[in-house]
Specification:
Residues 1-21 are annotated as: Disordered. The protein is an alpha/beta fold. The protein has helices at 21-27, 31-45, 52-59, 65-83, 130-140, 163-175, 179-184, 186-189, 236-248, 271-279, 370-374; strands spanning 87-90, 103-107, 110-120, 147-155, 195-200, 203-211, 224-226, 258-265, 282-286, 292-296, 315-318, 333-336, 352-357, 360-364. Strands 1-2-3-8-11-12-13-14 form an eight-stranded mixed β-sheet, sandwiched between helices. The chain has a four-stranded mixed β-sheet with strand order 5-6-4-7. Strand 9 (282-286) and strand 10 (292-296) form a beta hairpin. Helix 9 (236-248) packs across helix 10 (271-279). The longest helix has 19 residues, at 65-83.
């Protein structure tokens, strides 16, 4: 059962803001993306037969991008496990609550349970407004052979504004600007003429014109060069902490090492965020001899003072930017539990490891490169995902 059919694809344009992930992966043309589709098809065939229809349905879901991201995350983890010599059972009953974690893994030293979790950040104050994506797509269709635009969303409205009027307003403004004047005159480039604000109903969007270099003028491509910054709800450490809390006690007593593998959409958490979420905030103490010692505050997942079942999680597996373009190059890190009652988690050869020792995090490198377990070349996918258009 294939996810993506082998057919001729001709649309090589980058993903549109309002385009579903499933549609993009099936639509995008080019050798780079052919490699991605081929690997996804192959990895899907390595799942147990009864698990393949579910993963196919999620990867083809055009109504929920999170289904696509989480399915890719699980495919990646499953392939890494079997490529590391493990036997993997999918959604087998485990624990004393009659539930079914994602993977029951058997390796040379025994068994462990791995639960794959995909998280999505929320926009500050409200859910993401889909009208913004629609407007950004409209802005990208405004002809702008001489300038890129930096976009700032000042205020959003409840109803969709007129894209036709927005595009006409931008086109008139851009036609009045001379890129050579902007390049030659810094004051002009930094002045009021380089900025424009469009407002209608409850919407307000500001634009800054950035001149294209002479060699890039007139080439096809997106009008927007700098997208609006986004204010996220909460901090990354809280996101990791809440995610692990949600899964940590779901299965009750497992009597096996239990690893929570956290994939992440949005801004990826920095290592300091992961350390804070799992081991607590770092606190330094200055000694009389001038040296410093460090402890961790009791506000981490494994360092909280009360008995909350957190010792059931043996480790948390985190990958920086877990997406097809980085599958072959980004090594996962297993963060070991610092709770004295946790069952020790195994470390596969392609995993880096981190553990808390005397208030400090000690690290161990991976033994082998991650691409070896995935059966991929070191430089995969090869080529350019979006080749630069050639001047006609």
């Amino acid at each position: 059962m294939v996810i993506y059919s082998d057919r001729s694809r001709t649309d090589a344009s980058p993903k549109r803001e309002s385009e579903p992930e499933a549609e993009f992966y099936d639509r995008i043309a080019g050798p780079y993306w052919d490699q991605v589709r081929e690997v996804i098809n192959e990895w899907s065939s390595h799942l147990p037969v009864d698990a393949q229809p579910g993963i196919r349905s999620r990867l083809r879901d055009r109504n929920n991008d999170s289904n696509v991201f989480s399915a890719l995350w699980e495919l990646y983890l499953h392939e890494m496990l079997i490529g590391s010599g493990c036997t993997v059972e999918v959604e087998q009953a485990a624990g004393d609550r009659g539930k079914y974690p994602d993977f029951l893994v058997t390796h040379e030293d025994g068994q462990f349970v791995l639960e794959a979790v995909w998280t999505v950040q929320r926009l500050k104050g409200s859910a993401y407004n889909p009208l913004i994506a629609s407007l950004l797509d409209a802005i990208n269709t405004v002809p702008s052979p001489n300038f890129y635009l930096a976009v700032t969303i000042n205020r959003t409205g409840a109803k969709k504004p007129s894209q036709k009027r927005l595009k006409a307003d931008l086109a008139r403004w851009l036609e009045e600007l001379d890129p050579d004047e902007f390049i030659a005159d810094r004051e002009l480039r930094d002045g009021a003429r380089a900025r424009h604000t469009w407002a209608e109903a409850d919407w307000s969007i500001s634009f800054e014109a950035i001149p294209r270099s002479p060699e890039s003028r007139g080439l096809p491509g997106r009008t927007i060069g700098f997208y609006p910054t986004i204010a996220w709800f909460g901090g990354e450490s809280e996101l990791v902490l809440d995610t692990v809390k949600r899964k940590g006690t779901k299965y009750g007593e497992l009597n096996l090492p239990f690893i929570v593998a956290v994939g992440h959409a949005g801004f990826l958490p920095e290592e300091e965020d992961v350390k804070t979420a799992l081991y607590g905030s770092s606190h330094g103490h200055a000694r009389r001899d001038g040296a410093s010692t460090y402890t961790r505050l009791a506000n981490g997942y494994w360092t909280a003072p009360r008995d909350n079942g957190h010792e059931r999680v043996s480790g948390v597996l985190v990958v920086d930017n877990p997406a097809p373009p980085t599958w072959a190059t980004k090594s996962p890190t297993l963060w070991h539990s610092s709770h004295q009652n946790s069952i020790s988690a195994p470390v596969l050869p392609t995993w880096k490891a981190a553990r808390l020792v005397d208030g400090q995090v000690e690290r161990e490198p991976s033994v082998t490169e991650v691409h070896t377990a995935l059966g991929l070349p070191a430089q995969w996918p090869s080529g350019d995902p979006f080749p630069r258009p050639q001047r006609q």
